[in-house]
Amino acid sequence: MLNVPSQAFPAPGSQQRVASQGRSKVPLKQGRSLMDWIRLTKSGKDFTGLKGGLIEVTEEELKKHNKKDDCWICIRGFVYNVSPYMEYHPGGEDELMRAAGADGTDLFNEVHRWVNYESMLKECLVGRMAVKPAVPKDCHEGKRVLNGMLPKSQVTDTLPREGPSSPSYDWFQTESSVTIVIYTKQKNINLDSVIVDLQDDSLRAEAVIKDHSYLIHIGLSHEVQENFSVRVIENVGKIEIVLQKKETVSWKCLGDPLEKHDSFIPKKDTGLYYRQCQLISKEDVTHDTRLFCLMLPPSTHLQVPVGQHVYLKLSVTGAEIVKPYTPVSESLLSDFKEPVLSPNKYIYFLIKIYPAGLFTPELDRLQIGDFVSVSGPEGNFKVSKLQEVEDLFLLAAGTGFTPMVTVLNHALTHMSSLRKVKLMFFNKTEDDIIWRCQLEKLALKDKRFHVEYVLSAPSPEWNGKQGHVSRALLSEFLQRSLENSKVFLCICGPTPFTDEGIRLLHDLNFSDDEIHGFTA
């Protein structure tokens, strides 16, 4: 396949390249919104010139279509004519042209792997690449059984040498259960490193190991109960998935391999997998922000790591729209509100509703009992960054507060080195402050925590800080508890806020190793 060097994307002069981990959007012309694009794709217009047909595209043919008015791009083996979409692309035309006439898979994965391009560009599909991508070699279950246990699997050789060691797996059974054991060969594997989905007697188990993903995907040879258990033995890096048999019969094999079974590849190269979650409750938090509670399927094990996000997917006017959101806890601390529901089966989201938006009004219209598709966790924040930190500073604007919720809970309950954690929370008005009452209760309860509010459009009665993120505000706020204490800073909000905040932190002599910028 033709590959464009990923370091060339976004273009050096592009508006999409920003100093921080976020990226800015390019202003679109009137009538070029996502909803306008969806309407256009439903107009019956032929976007490919093939009158609904599909072709096999050779590398030589793909290379020819490299101009703005004739631009073909390959994504994961499929070729699309993106010329009609140029003016509708939020990242701008220049970004699409980086992959014109070439394989843009790496670029796509780097910038927005989560985007549902199959739905967005389905009317632009030209066909498949003639060269078939390499497929990981599947090991068929049941060829050989030793003492009721399969030999360790042969893992495909797709891993760079500097990466973690290839995992392997075995299985064994008792009269009533089947246990699958994954040997990760890495210590300190946690329950939130494991995602298991059991659906129609097919098992999909993913273990996230550093920046790689190991997948077991098997059509089970016999029926099992809906409920299962997952156990992690951290000091040896072993994962056990215990399934309960529906019938007490001896299994001759575990089952048949399904797509990408026994593969071990970089996490960035894996596609997103969604499961249907049910809306259980929805309550107002501010005048425009709601707390949504979604219930995982009973046959799913999923725990979102601290500071990471998932993607929610809804069908809007016939197109699948996907948006990232960071789960939060039910409340800031369980002391203030006893959990009514099991924390491992429910996911909570603080979401601002934009009346003129495309996604959030549709989400807000959902009724209790309706379903939303939820992906597995994504994100590059690691709690290991907080080891031995004494002073933790959190800078949040608006719903950029959401990743701070789990970071704050983790800091106050698991960081023995912590002396102080301070939150500077930027909003327009007092009515916009999310969970203000809980924040102030937390500050009273735990003397290590302190919160300051900054408003950009306060009422005349406001006596607190005013304005936008600035050097003066930050230099006063970022006072260490000790002269040489170990510090870490997290920042999240709209892209301009995050960019400016990180620039100011650098001016104040904080290093990149001491800063993590979340993408809002």
TrEMBL record:
One Pfam family it belongs to: NAD_binding_1
Segments of this protein annotated with the region Disordered: 1-27
Requisite cofactors: FAD
One GO location term (cellular component): endoplasmic reticulum
InterPro entries the record matches: Cbr1-like_FAD-bd_dom, CS_dom, Cyt_B5-like_heme/steroid-bd, Cyt_B5-like_heme/steroid_sf, Cyt_B5_heme-BS, Cytochrome_b5/Flavoprotein_Rdt, FAD-bd_FR_type, FNR_nucleotide-bd
Domain Cytochrome b5 heme-binding: start-end pairs: 54-130
FAD-binding FR-type domain location: 272-384
Origin: domain of life: Eukaryota
Family membership: Belongs to the flavoprotein pyridine nucleotide cytochrome reductase family.
Name under which the protein is recorded: Cytochrome b5 reductase 4
Gene from which this protein is expressed: Cyb5r4
